[in-house]
Design goal:
Radius of gyration: 21 Å
Distance between the termini: 53 Å
Strand order of the largest sheet: 11-10-9-12-15-17-16
Structural class: alpha/beta
Shape: elongated
Strand content: 25-35%
Order of helices and strands: EEEHEHEEHEEHEHEHEEEEHEHEE
Length: 299
């Protein structure tokens, strides 16, 4: 038996302990995309909230399952759970939803014949955006646009120099701007999302760039960088998490040498000022616009 797991379902659903993890948001996981056709006996999925991403993951799971294999999928009721029955029916999978712990859950058997998974795999998979002139994928933060916070940072970013890092790099929009400066000697792109790192690798063909699929909070800081840029995330599991962005601020300071500079953009309502002032010697509000605020912080 070969069982796969996507994400971390609530423990009340008894997720299989021996299953192979495939979530792109858990560093070190296997790739569900790489599982051979019909090689899995069971797949358990905590479905993501975005429609394109969710349908893509369901299609990957069904593609990996053998005929007669078991699919166990769940999602919060208000984040895609109410749509699971119809979405699986579109693929030719019949299942009845049950409710538990504010989630909808469907346990179904993979039929011999599937319908429509090719389209879901295509529209939810890696794709080139002519508008962005970049590779991207649904599920990556701001996957189909330059979000306003990043745009504000790019607009005001000076020519940086030395060694730096882009914390939460996404598909690489900020990093491309940073690397326009010939004085930058190296830039490490860090993101929790494997898909973001894979897209950034395709978008940035520059020998100065390095890529790290990791949880920034687990990085051991050396205090040697000259600069950091970041548009910190403030959602975890679809819910607002101010502590996540605050952790980015503290880690940015820990990664910098004395005199190093951090350029950090945030939504106006997020309370990062106290953390910035505690971690840095000097903090300057560069600008506020469009619901965002941009800080320059010197260690």
């Amino acid at each position: 038996m070969t069982a796969y797991l996507y994400g971390r379902p609530p423990l009340v659903f008894d997720p299989p302990s021996g299953a192979i993890q495939t979530s792109p948001l858990i560093p070190g996981s296997a790739r569900l995309e790489d599982v051979a056709f019909a090689a899995a006996t069971s797949v358990t999925v905590l479905a993501p909230p975005g429609a394109l991403e969710r349908r893509h993951v369901l299609a990957l799971a069904l593609q990996a399952l053998e005929a007669g294999g078991r699919l166990d999928v769940m999602a919060p009721k208000d984040k895609g759970g109410s749509r699971l029955v119809k979405e699986l029916a579109d693929f030719g999978v019949v299942g009845e939803a049950t409710s538990k712990a504010h989630h909808k859950r469907i346990e179904a058997i993979r039929p011999a014949d599937l319908t429509g998974i090719e389209a879901a795999l295509e529209v939810g998979g890696p794709q080139y955006s002519p508008a962005l002139q970049a590779w991207t994928q649904p599920g990556i933060f701001a996957w189909d646009r330059i979000d306003p916070g990043s745009a504000l940072l790019i607009e005001h970013l000076p020519a940086l120099n030395g060694q730096g890092a882009d914390l939460g790099c996404g598909f690489g929009a900020l990093s491309r701007a940073v690397l326009r400066s010939a004085a930058v000697t190296s830039l490490t792109l860090i993101d929790l999302d494997r898909r973001a790192i894979e897209a950034a690798r395709r978008n940035i063909e520059d020998g100065r760039a390095r890529f790290d699929w990791t949880d920034l909070r687990a990085v051991t800081a050396t205090g040697t960088l000259d600069f950091v840029v970041s548009n910190p995330p403030f959602h975890a599991g679809g819910d607002e998490s101010r502590s996540l962005g605050q952790a980015f601020v503290r880690q940015a300071a820990a990664m910098l040498r004395r005199g190093g500079v951090a350029w950090i953009v945030a939504n106006r309502h997020l309370p990062y000022e106290a953390d910035l002032n505690a971690a840095f010697a000097r903090v300057r509000l560069v600008t506020e616009a469009g619901g965002y605020k941009l800080f320059e912080a010197v260690k």
